[in-house]
Amino acid sequence: MTQKIKGNNVMNTALINIHLQHRSDTIMMIKDGVIQSFEKTLPLDFSGDIIDGKHQWIYPGFIDAHMHLAWYGQLLASLTLFECSSHAAIHTKIQTYLSNNSSLTLLHARGYNDGSFTHEPSLTRFHLDTMSPTLPTVLTRVCNHVVVVNSVMLKRIQDHFKELDTTYFDHDETGQLTGVIKEQGIGYVNALLPQLTQDDYLAFLQSGAKQCLSYGITTVGTNDLWMHNPEYTQVKAAYDDFSKEQCLRVSHQIKMDELSDFEILDHNPIQEDEFQVQGPLKLFADGSLGGKTALMSTPYLHTTTYGEATIEQSHLEAMVKKANERGMQVVVHAIGDQAIDNVAKAYTPYTQDGNPLRHTIIHVQITRPHQIKTLAQNNIMGMVQPIFLRSDAPLLKERLPQTIIDHSYAWKTMMDEGMKIAFSSDAPIEDPNVFIGMHSALTRLDAYGVYPQGHSPSECIDLDSALKHYTTMGAYLLHQEHHLGTLEIGFKADCFASSVSLHTLSNDELLSHRVSWTMVNGKIVYHQ
Fold first, then answer.
1. 345: closest CA among 374, 308, 385, 309?
2. Which residue in 138, 361, 408, 506 has the most C-beta neighbors within 10 A?
3. Pairwise CA distance, residues 150 & 502, whole Å
């Protein structure tokens, strides 16, 4: 595939025999990872590497604006339960795993989705006790905002923490703990899980990156650095090592909890280079729809609960103010409509002049009529996940009023109102496969057939819009639009190859499509 001629100390590459959308040129000239020109014939005096594109279509590398790369790599090394749609399926998978891993001292499985259960209740420790009666067992829900533990693990938590705050522990009607733990309470569980090393995290990053590259993703906005995580130092050091591999660009979204954390970051900043940069402050305003902790303005159906505000409003506003004074972008997780209002209130004093720091709401998922118009008028931006609709659909009619459902996951409305948004996956919550995400955006079909014609079909977008919001808009929200997100002269040679034009694929074909290879900085870093 690669031919070298008259090599020199400068990294020159000619990518030949290619198709480019909106261009008749068939050659892309690259120097030191940057696009220099587009040509129809190879210059006679060219000296460097020649890569034969074999008449494939070349597209800008995808940008996943919000995910958790290390967590995603960890998921790939874990027992996962995504496909289990019943208690029995989970029981079978756990039993099979235990029979093949008899030396385990603790079982931690990820990705169960009680929203996919048919006529079965959500899991509790009493269900887990029948599946794993003697081994400490933890199951993390697909949303990562809820875990369920068996009785052995619950006792370990109670024995270890003598003053246990059970605010975020569910109780049954008799007052017994059910083993279901949400939001801040999950910290008690994490403290008793096996500690991971820098090498562990480096391995997670490598495996997560390899999978992302196989989807044509060349840049990610990632939230793995949580300043109060006991393993923060190991994760940060692993990223320093990973950036030297120069295969995937990373923009860090850094979770900080206290005003004093800004000074800590000043004294120990991200070691920035071409492949990792220090990005925005990351905060959480609520939980998840699956855990009924997304903060709503009206109660969940058949309950009196509105969800959880995971940060005091005054503290949210103080953190945003401090970040703004320091010229630091803020991105806040907000799924429920009330959480979105709360974040908008904190942002609005700093967005009236066009929002130059690009303060952003992550998810913007459950919205009331006219709420999006207000966000757009206040120049507030969004990082949204089209793929969420595939798995969330069974929960909607069960938990939300129809008036809210009809106006949620409203990406086309956001675009029509002029709201600047970028697409992402929130992996490992969902698969970072961009082709699945684009299929969701184009069709609004779910994985369970809840909406056979698609949820709110008027919100479907076209392929060009989907590509834009996985490329140029991702670069914009990551403050990297001057060198990433498009294939133009002076931009980085980050791209992927497709055997056919994406515009010739049906929606079903798009869903199963795969890239042929992926290039970052002018070097092919993944080949099918």
1. 374
2. 361
3. 47
Gyration radius of the chain's alpha carbons = 24
Q: Coil, strand or helix: which one is 284?
A: strand
C-alpha neighbours within 13 Å on the C-beta side of residue 425: 28
Q: Residue 74 corresponds to which tokens in the numbers above?
A: 């960890």
Q: Can you read off the two tokens belonging to residue 372? A: 């999006």
Q: In a structure prediction context, what are the per-residue pLDDT tens digits for the chain, which is 528 residues long? A: 555 444 444 589 999 999 999 999 999 999 999 999 999 999 999 999 999 999 999 999 999 999 999 999 999 999 999 999 999 999 999 999 999 998 999 999 999 999 889 889 999 999 999 999 999 999 999 999 999 999 999 999 999 998 999 999 999 999 999 999 999 999 999 999 999 999 999 999 999 999 999 999 999 999 999 999 999 999 999 999 999 999 999 999 999 999 999 999 999 999 999 999 999 999 999 999 999 999 999 999 999 999 999 999 999 999 999 999 999 999 999 999 999 999 999 999 999 999 999 999 999 999 998 999 999 999 999 999 999 999 999 999 899 999 999 999 999 999 999 999 999 999 999 999 999 999 999 999 999 999 999 999 999 999 999 999 999 999 999 999 999 999 999 999 999 999 999 999 999 999 999 999 999 999 999 999
Measure the CA angle with vertex 440, ends 336 and 206; round to 5°. Answer: 90
Taking the C-alpha atoms of residue 375 and residue 361, their distance in angstroms, rounded to an integer, is: 10
Beta carbons of 68 and 27 less than 8 angstroms apart:
no
Query: Is residue 148 within 8 Å of residue 128, measured between CB atoms?
Result: yes
pTM comes to 0.94
- The distance in angstroms from the start CA to the end CA of the chain is 13
